[in-house]
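Prompt: May I have another protein with tokenized structure?
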Amino acid sequence: MLVVGAVVLLDTAFFAVVAPLLPTLSHQFHLSKLGVGILEASYPAGMLLASLPGGLIAVRLGPRRTVVIGLVLLACTTVAFGFASNAAELDLARLVEGAAGACSWAGGITWLVAASPTDRRGATIGAAVGAAIFGAMGGPALGVVASAIGRPALFSALAAVALVLALITAALPEIRRVASPGALRSLALLFRQPRALSAVWLMGLPAIVSGLLAVLGSLRLHQLGASTAEIGAVFLVAAGLEATASPLGGRLSDRRGRLAPMRIGLAVVAVMLACFTLAGTALLLAVVMVAVSLGLGTFWAPAMAQLSDVADDYKIEQGLAAALMNLAWAAGQIVGAGAGGAIAKATGNGVPTLAAAGLALLTLTVVSRPLRGAARRRPGVTLDL
């Protein structure tokens, strides 16, 4: 648990480090809103491309080796990002860094699920996600440091940390595993299950919102007069509350059903996103962004646990469920950061933020309906359709 927590913490720190650097990178490399969106979307694009291969690697080689592969790739791409001299090199480094994250997350979540009791799965995943969000807290702070001492020095030091963690991970024993001979058939079976598709959407929606805020929130705060340090502070506070909400949401999902915490989060996200363009000062916008992040914290652990529940029900390798988690998160980030940035450039911030609010409200309406049919129940766990 400690090692996996450290791995996902480091991975999300690398992902989040770019947010406060976006205004500086935009000026240095003459990036438009679309260019900033492409840079922000490069990491999830790499994760999207590597999500299924990462899950298959976790099935075939085991989660420990998969985590080591991810950490080594992360170290290499971090150095490349630090020394990048143009926008294309930045985008490529982030793309491969996303592929590294796919391996780290697929191996790490598979490792945790295999080692945790079923009736504590939400809490266990929530703790790991909380650690990851703490990494997201440190990421913006690291971005501020990078703006002060330079990208090459900071990112080289962080790459060394990743290599040390890879050595620690490699020294741990592998869990007992059984390779699945029908991985593609198992994935097809997951895609035919309504609860699995529901979990995928409930992972993708908060990723859309998160990607959208990372681009539009950072740039809008800068337009309203916030400094790089102040932008980093906003993301730091937001991530702190999200990290607190994640394990609480996981525990609640173990006791009250997987959808219970997400209904609360959907209501908060829908209302606060509708207020995004109404915030006329940096302080008001910061309040909106922090509240949205708090709502997003209720999604991750319950959605991941629900997908793991379905994999258990149908005797499917957890590495494949983890691959779908990565796939949903990455696709959502691409839509939020990439498409959101493009739409904002063409129409302004109101259209993408109100569209995301509408998606949250529509999802809340659907998941608030009485459940139809019956789901198999295991002791201590309620399965939602």
